[in-house]
Specification:
Elements lengths: L5 E5 L5 E3 L7 E3 L2 E2 L17 H5 L4 E5 L2 H11 L4 E4 L10 H4 L1 H11 L3 E6 L8 H6 L4 E6 L5 H7 L6 H13 L3 E9 L7 H14 L2 E6 L17 H22 L3 E3 L5
Parallel strand pairs: 1-5, 3-6, 6-7, 7-8, 8-9, 9-10, 10-11
Antiparallel strand pairs: 2-3, 4-5
Helix pairs in contact: 2-4, 8-9
Bound molecules: iron/sulfur cluster (SF4).
Iron/sulfur cluster binds next to loops.
Amino acid sequence: MFQEFKVMKTRCETALSRSGLPGLDYALNPYVGCSHACIYCYARLYTRNRDVGSNWGRIILVKENIVDVLRREVAKYPRGVVGIGTVTDAYQPVEAVYKLTRRSLEVLLRHGFHVSIQTKNPLVLRDMDLLVTHRDLVDVGFTITTLDYRASIQIEPHAPPPNARLKALEKLVEENIASWIFYGPIIPGINSDPDTVRSMVDIAKKLNIVLYYDVLHVKSFMNTPTHPLYNYIEKTRRERRRIMELIETECRRQKVTCRTGFSEG
Ligand code: SF4
């Protein structure tokens, strides 16, 4: 599951960027590239570093000065909601070594910024002390695309397995951390079947949390016969509406709040 990747240091001029995502004022991404290497990951399109984009998952840039830059910014920027991991997963394996996400969290929370984290990695539980102490300032979402390990390996080859993500999400809820689940991207033929839809709504129901979902957005890099998603593109275009209705219907039936969202990465 774990893959080798090359780590390179880089320096950043800004830590917080303005976010156009709903509900977020700022975005913070301590790493460029993501070793979870999901085959659908859109983030490769947004990195300016060509090597990182074309070797997705195998090169990670660490913004070594991000915490110092952030300290200066929080002193002058108005407080707001900061999305952590809006482009790449801030709790990917490299974070276990560099702790840039943790140190950024400390700065943001100490200065009264609200933090919204989205991840696939249970490493976020390492920072439970901060999350619990600043409960009123945090929310955490876990991306779970399927509960089927084989399907997960097919689309998210180096991300933690779904059962580990589910356990971590349960732990967050147990600790009364505002939490949510993101089911996406939904790919017809891989994780769009009624059983998967029902199981995702079941999780949201059982944990009493909001379910966000999103159907795959077809991007140019998928539209080549050698890409593993190539054969799913036409189906995605045809079935988007049907899948959304399936989810909305199941959520109404189970009285679960669901919203469409847009996945990180
Ligand atoms: S989708 Fe998210 S977790 Fe997967 S590679 Fe992209 S940034 Fe990482």
